[in-house]
Amino acid sequence: MPADSGVDGPSLLEAPVRTGVLKNFKDSLLKNIIKRAQFAIPPLSLMILGSVEVPGIEHHICDLRFETFPLDTPWDLIGISVQTGAVKPAFELSALLRAKGFKVVLGGPYVTIFPERCRDHADVLVLGEADEIWSDVLVDLKHDRLQKEYRVGEFPDLSQSRSVTKDILDPGNYFTTNVVQTSRGCPYSCDFCNVHVMNGHRIRHRKISDVVREVEGFLEKDRRIFFFLDDTVNADEEYAEKLFRELIPYRISWVGQATTKLGENPRLLDAFSRSGCGALLVGIESLAEESNRAHHKFHNPVERQAACIRAIREAGICVYGSFIYGLDADTVAQADAIEAFLDATGIDVPGINLLRPIPGTGVFDRLADEGRLLFDRNDHDAFRFSWGQEMLYRPNKISLDEFIPSYTELTKRVFSVGNALKRAAHAPTLRSAVLMFNLFYVHMYGLSRSDLSRQMEELAESK
Ligand code: B12
Ligand code: SF4
Fold this sequence. Notes:
The model is unreliable at about 10-20 (pLDDT under 50). With about 475 residues, this protein is α/β, with parallel strands linked by helices. α9 packs parallel to α10. The radius of gyration is 22 Å and the shape is globular. About 40% of the residues lie in helices and about 10% in strands. The strands form 3 sheets. Strands 5-8-9-10-11-12 form a 6-stranded parallel β-sheet. A 4-stranded parallel β-sheet has the order 1-2-3-4, with helices on both faces. Bound molecules: cobalamin and iron/sulfur cluster. Iron/sulfur cluster binds near residues 186, 193, 195, 231 and 232. Cobalamin binds near residues 42, 80, 85 and 386.
C-alpha cells in the first residue's frame, strides 16, 4: 500500500498538493523538475528475458510506471516481475488479467524466496534467475504444455554468451537505456540485504569480451550514460580493472555501485576514472562499527571510509553515500556523526535511509523473533520499502519517541535547498545531475517527514 504522501515514487507526480502558497509552488516546481529529469531506467530482468529467442515467439515490455496495460491485445502469456515491496499491486494485476482469461507467469525475487505465497496468484511460477529456463517456458507455451512451476536448479552460468537487446524498449521513457550487468552474486552477507539469498555468495562473471561487445552495440542505439547495475562493481578488482581499461577507448560516461575499498586501489581508481566513471553509490550504513557488525557487515571498516571517499572524489568521481540510521548499536549520537561525516568528506549526494526489514532477509526474521517489528510478520504488504515513510520496527537502543524526531531533524538539516546548491557547486563532475538528485531529495525527504509525523501521532494515540 503506497503512502498517501507519495513518497513511494511515481505516484508522487499525481499527489494532491498541500496547503500553503509557497509550499505549493515549491512542490509543483520540484515535481516538474523530477518529471522532466525522468530518472527512470529500464528493467534489466525483462530486457534479458525479452532477448531470449524462440522461433514464432515475440516479446513486448509494458513498463507500468509510464504505460497502461493494453488489455485489448490477445496476449498468449503475461509475465510479471515481482519485487518484495510491490507484492500487492503485482497480485492485483495478476488477478485482473486472469479474470480476463489471460495466462499469467510470475517471477522475480519475491517469487523465488516465497513461492508458496505466490502459487494461488498465477498460472505459472518461475523460481530463480530465469536467463536459461525462460526458453523452456516459451517452448512449452508454444506446444501448449505449460507446467505450473519452473525451478532453476543451478545458478545460470554467466560466462555463456547471451546477448541483450534493447529493441523492445521505448527509449523516450527512460533517462538512458544503457543498463549493463557484468556479474551476479555477492561474497558478503549483510543481514538487511537479499542479494546473497537470491544470487548466491559466489561471484559469477560475464566474459569481458561479451560485456565490451554489449557496450559497443548499445552505444550504436543510445549514446547516453551507462548504468553498471552490479551490486559491487569492484568486487573482483582484477576483473574490474581489465574490463574498464578495455572500455576506455569507447569514451562512455558511466555510473555504478561500489565499495569504498576502491579508494585504496589507485590503479583501479585510475581505470574507473579514465573509462568515464562519473558517480558511484557506496554503502556506508552506520558510522558505528558495532552497528555494522551487528548486521553482519564486516567489509569497509569505518575508520578508513573518509579517506577512501576523499580519494574517489579526488579522482573526479562523485560519491553517493548511502547510510542507514537506526541499526542495532546506533544511538542518537549517529545523527550528528552523519552530518559531521558529510561535511568532512564532501559526499555529493547523501542518502539517509531507515532500515527497511525485507521479508526473506536475516534481519527480518531476527526482528520478528525479538518482537521488534511494528507490523505482523505475515503481512508482507506492510513491509514496502522506499526512502523513509513510516518506521517498520523498533530500534534497539533508541525509543521510537526519540528516534523519529532525531531522524526527521537530521534529514531537514541535510536536505535543504542551500545544501543542494552547495553540493552541486563542489561536485567533481556531473554537477547538474548532483543538483537534480539533491533537489529531488529535498522534496522526497519532506514527504517522508510528513509520513513519520503522522505515525508519531498515531503511536501517541494508541498508547
Ligand atoms: C538496479 C536496481 C535498482 C534501480 C531500478 C532499476 C530498474 N528499473 O529495474 C533503482 C536504483 C531505481 C532501484 C531502486 C530501488 N531498489 Co533496487 N536494485 C537494483 C539492483 C542493484 C539490480 C536489479 C537488476 O536489474 N538486477 C538484474 C536482474 C537481471 O536480476 P533480477 O531483477 O533478479 O531478475 C532475474 C530474476 O529475478 C528473474 N526474474 C525477474 N523478473 C522476472 C519476471 C518473470 C516473468 C520471470 C519469469 C523471471 C523474472 O529472472 C531475471 C533474470 O535472471 C538490485 C540488486 C540485484 N542484484 O538484483 C536492487 C534491488 C532490487 N533493489 C532493492 C531495493 C530495496 C530498492 C529500493 C527500495 C531502494 C531504496 N531504498 O530506494 C528502490 C525501490 C525501487 C522500486 N520502486 O522498486 C532490493 C529489493 C529487495 C527485494 N525486492 O526483495 C534489491 C534486491 C537490492 C537489495 N539490496 O536487496 N533499484
Ligand atoms: S548490501 Fe551489498 S555488500 Fe552487503 S550483501 Fe548486499 S549486495 Fe552484498
